[in-house]
Amino acid sequence: MDGSDLLDLLQWPAMAVTLGAAWLVASRSERHRKWGFWVYMLSNVLWVAWGWSTQAWALIALQAGLAAMNIRGASKNKA
Fold it and tell me: What is the pTM of this model?
């Protein structure tokens, strides 16, 4: 298995991390929601890495937009 095969497999952990983040941010616990923010950020990084390897430019743009919205939401949540 070469490096491109490993990068191709990255989509599955990225999907699992995204689902885990969604579970956390839907929690009633503020602590879990805070963790969910960081797990979402990790999922953005994983998706960008996979998207870069497959030249999925729209996916990379989507992840940048989602990360920006998460950061905006987190900053508004602090206020």
Answer: 0.89
